[in-house]
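Section 3.1: Structural characterization of target chains.
Under the original work plan, the team committed to producing a structural model for every single-chain target entering the pipeline before any wet-lab resources were allocated. The record below documents one such target. The sequence was received from the expression subgroup and is listed exactly as submitted; it comprises 192 residues.
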Amino acid sequence: MGKLSEFSTDCCMERILERYDRYSTAERQLVATDTISQGSWTLEHAKLKARIEVLQRNQKHYMGEDLDTLSLKELQNLEGQLDSALKNLRSRKNQIMFESISQLQKRDKVLQEQNNQLSKKVKNKEKEVAQLSTPEQQNQESSSSVLPKPLQPFNITRCSEMQQGRGNVGDIEETSQQQNQTNTTMPAWMLS
């Protein structure tokens, strides 16, 4: 409350009683608000508890449990809710699938472009090799009567088989030996 000096005889008794009334009124109001707030909390707790029970019961119904207590109208309502939920699930699934397909198509285009660029590079390298080997072939033709062996095309399928483990080095060597055997020397009189 107050200090002892405030209650001294110098102060008048009326002020002391007024202060006492103010403090006691304030104290009563605090106690009243605590009681009201406790009452509202208990009411709020009861509401939340009832809501939890309803949600748990609905969850059981959605899982197919405790359906015996439902009326025909409630069962039809439950069926409509489940149908609606299934439609939403299917539409979301389709949306995700279409997005995935779109991303895969974009990736396919990028890979096709990369493949085309690599094919162009391979063709350019083959042309460069052919141009470099052509002057060498002309020099050999003039110096000897034997036709030079033509460049053997690089067998890409054989290399890919090698990488995948279906072929072996002996198969490639055998193929190149067969191709070399078909090249024969031509007599000089046939060249002129």
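Helices lie at 13-62, 72-143, 156-164, 169-182, 188-191.
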